[in-house]
Write a structure and sequence with these properties.
binds adenosine-5'-triphosphate, four-stranded antiparallel β-sheet, alpha+beta, globular, six-stranded mixed β-sheet, 23 strands, 32% strand
Length: 364
């Protein structure tokens, strides 16, 4: 197992990139700690697969180095990196049995047959395919084949890292939950470095200890699920994480006050005078409805989602959502919104501004 370092890395699929827009991955430095369970989260096209393929060696970066521990593997072949990779769609040998498919990576490395048999049995149990071990892969459903791919990815104990690229796309919803739980317990047991690519925040937040959020070819934040909820470093993290995501409002900020369309709101700290495109962000969980003070809004609708309600309001054409806890009484005259000051974030050109007016720093 190894710590994986991406140093001064960037990648363009163009032979002669003209500018930043031509780079699928903008210049970055990033470290994946040995034994970490990471999710790599971001919307379609932000560069997740490119990053994964650079780590596994399927793509050579146009700039920068990839290190496994202290070893520079930038020019090393995939086969020389000791990585297991599971793709979105199954990669199985149709003419082999389920058992032989699972055993393949171990036999290939000349492992002891008794060890192979016991490890294959353990993995088959994990993916729920003990009864099918003797069957040929041909004729199995797509989701059964994907379980074999997952099993094959996890069968070796000596890999540097296991990379998963949206591995549960073809798996039915119930099995998805179960496999994710299994992956997590496997991580606890064996401590492999795991990187799990997804665009689904639920998958990311339930699998990973640390979530790496990408946006437009950049890592915009790395943190625990709680960090991403409490202090989104970039507006994308704010609205991508959370259901609904963070509310964002155009604002002018001066010291410890923000002015939003002529309404002055208190902030929890002083921010100086941030320049650029300034917004404030507040999660719906920290917005409350009142009759007396705050931003005047039009309530569009109220959705009952079980344990709480989501109030969808309109303020000068901008939607603001509030999460209202069960048991809270709402009355028709409650058409003003109040934000918890200490939960308001200030953003300049999409990056979080630190209190005391320091301009935003880019997350590693
Ligand atoms: P998805 O979730 O849709 O798979 P992603 O976040 O994994 O997206 P990538 O597949 O890494 O994103 O793509 C990043 C950018 O690079 C996209 O603009 C994509 O069109 C482009 N791209 C990816 N692969 C290639 C390729 N082989 N040749 C040219 N451009 C590519």
């Amino acid at each position: 197992m190894a710590r994986i370092t991406l140093s001064n890395l960037a990648h363009s699929y163009f032979a002669d990139p003209k500018g930043e827009a031509d780079f699928a991955l903008k210049q970055m430095d990033h470290v994946w700690e040995d034994g970490g369970a990471y999710a790599l989260l971001g919307s379609s096209g932000c560069g997740k697969t490119t990053l994964l393929n650079i780590i596994s060696g399927l793509v050579r970066p146009s700039q920068g180095r990839v290190l496994f521990g202290d070893r520079d593997v930038t020019d090393a072949a995939t086969s020389d990196r000791n990585i297991a990779q599971v793709f979105q769609f199954p990669v199985v040998y149709d003419t082999m049995t389920v058992r032989d498919n699972l055993a393949f990576p171990l036999r290939n490395r000349g492992m002891d047959p008794a060890y192979v048999a016991s490890r294959v049995a353990q993995i088959a149990r994990m993916i729920g395919m003990e009864a099918e071990l003797g069957r040929k892969a041909r004729g199995l459903t797509a989701d059964a084949k994907q379980k074999i791919s997952l099993g094959r990815g996890m069968v070796r104990e000596d890999v540097n890292a296991i990379l998963f690229d949206e591995p549960l796309t073809v798996i039915d919803p119930h099995m998805k939950w179960e496999l994710r739980t299994q992956l997590k317990s496997l991580h606890r047991e064996f401590g492999h470095t795991m990187i799990y690519v997804t665009h689904d925040q639920t998958e990311a937040l339930t699998f990973a200890d640390r979530v790496v959020v990408m946006y437009d070819g950049r890592v915009v934040q790395t943190g625990t699920p709680q960090d991403l909820f409490d202090t989104p470093e970039h507006t994308f993290v704010g609205y991508f994480i959370g259901s609904p995501g963070m509310n964002l409002l155009e604002a002018a900020v001066e010291g410890n006050r923000a002015t939003v369309a002529g309404v002055s709101l208190p902030l929890g700290a002083a921010y100086g005078t941030p320049r650029g495109h300034v917004q404030i962000g507040i999660r719906p969980e920290f917005v409350s409805l009142t009759a007396a003070e705050g931003l005047p809004v039009t309530i569009r609708r109220i959705e009952d989602v079980g344990r709480h309600r989501i109030v969808r309001a309109d303020f000068n054409g901008t939607e603001i959502n509030a999460v209202v806890e069960e048991g809270t009484t709402l009355s028709p005259d409650m058409t003003r919104l109040v934000f918890a000051p200490e939960r308001i974030g200030v953003y300049a050109d999409d990056w979080r501004v630190s209190p005391q007016g320091r301009q935003p720093g880019r997350a590693a």
